[in-house]
Design a protein that fits this description.
124 residues; mainly alpha; 2 domains; two-stranded parallel ribbon; 5 helices; 10% strand; elongated
């Protein structure tokens, strides 16, 4: 089991470290990059950072905004909204821990400002 896992890791390493080249019209080869990453989402950004940190020449291609779905529409905004909702619910049920419960006055515009700030603070 360990040997096959080691072999798989070695194969992945060999593929990752292989130069990506493009063939020029003259038949020559252009080796400007060691690695070309398509997609600047979470995985693409981390891959580019790790490869560049290891000394590879990296090209990152993104058609829109770096950060991907996680930053712009998924994880980060969802968790920011969930955090605000959780806090509001804890305020309503504070009597469970001996505090006087209160119904929070929710300002949705300010909640969305919190979501936007969370996106701005995220790498991407």
């Amino acid at each position: 089991m360990s040997i096959s896992r080691d072999r798989a890791a070695a194969d992945r390493h060999r593929l990752a470290s292989r130069s990506i080249s493009r063939v020029l019209p003259s038949g020559g080869v252009d080796k400007r990059y060691d690695l070309v990453i398509v997609g600047g989402g979470s995985a693409g950004l981390v891959s580019a950072l790790v490869a560049a940190g290891a000394g590879a020449r990296v090209a990152l291609i993104e058609r829109d905004r770096t950060g991907g779905d996680c930053l712009w529409t998924g994880c980060v905004p969802s968790k920011s909204l969930i955090g605000a909702a959780t806090l509001a619910q804890r305020m309503r049920s504070a009597d469970r821990v001996g505090l006087v419960p209160v119904v929070p006055d929710i300002d949705f515009e300010r909640v969305m400002d919190h979501v936007d700030a969370a996106r701005a603070d995220s790498p991407g």
